[in-house]
Amino acid sequence: MLGIPLIYLRTRGYRLSPRNFGFRKARLGQTILTVLATWFLAYFVFGILYSWFLNTFASPSQDPSNAPGQKTSELFGTSAGAFILAFIMVALLTPLVEELFFRGIIHRGLEKSLGFLPGATLSATIFALAHTDYRLFVPIFVLGFGLAYVVHKTGSIWASISIHFAVNGLGVLAQLLSPGS
User: Fold this and answer.
1) CB under 8 Å to 83, separation ≥6 — which residues?
2) How far is 169 from 32, CA to CA, in rounded Å?
3) Helix (H, G, I), strand (E, B), or coil: what is residue 12?
4) Is residue 107 within 8 Å of residue 120, measured between CB atoms?
């Protein structure tokens, strides 16, 4: 996922340093406030409005909760070792790679050339499309936009990696703890 974009950037003369991709220290207080505000808006305000919209206008087949998710047990198995492997792959490595690609490369490049709002909107759209299920487009778009906002406000990609880790980690844990998994 990262090889071709990094080679392309290098051939275009882009300096491939961690700092250029957003791996910077951020002020802890500002980062915590930004993350909490973004989390509140995304999960409570958006969640309530989106749930109302789905209940009012959508058919059951359009409900994101009916999207065929990739169950970690189907991908990795059900043993303790499989859970640990799933957690490492889905909750640790995926957020790191996706945030480097979507926020460190795509969003930062779009924000530089288009400004924050168009750059965040376009990068969130690409992020949502990359996750392929149309039923999940809106929630993943909102997550992508929120992550772009956090990177924009803090100047660091570490906060978006942490949020992405929390979202994916909670998903893996929820699947582990759900009946029939």
Assistant:
1) 72, 76, 172, 176
2) 19
3) coil
4) yes
Determine how many CB atoms are found less than 10 A away from the CB of residue 27. Answer: 12
Greatest Cα pair distance, the chain, in angstroms, is 52
Q: What is the DSSP letter of 180?
A: T
Please give the C-alpha separations between residue 82 and each of 95, 133, 166, 167, 181, in angstroms, as whole numbers. 19, 25, 19, 19, 12
Backbone angles phi, psi at 154, to 5 degrees: -90, -20
Backbone torsion region of residue 47, taken as left when φ is above 0, otherwise alpha when ψ lies between -120 and 50, otherwise beta: alpha
Contact at 8 Å (CB) between 105 and 22? no
Task: Output the six-digit token pair for 102.
Answer: 């979507």
pTM score of the predicted model:
0.77
- Residue 101, pLDDT above cutoff 70: yes
Q: Which two tokens stand for residue 23?
A: 């791996």
- Give the Å distances, CA to CA, from 129 to 13, 143, 171: 28, 12, 20
d(CA 89, CA 84): 9
Point out the least confidently predicted range of 27-36, 136-145, 146-155. Answer: 27-36
**pLDDT reading at 17 higher than 90:** no
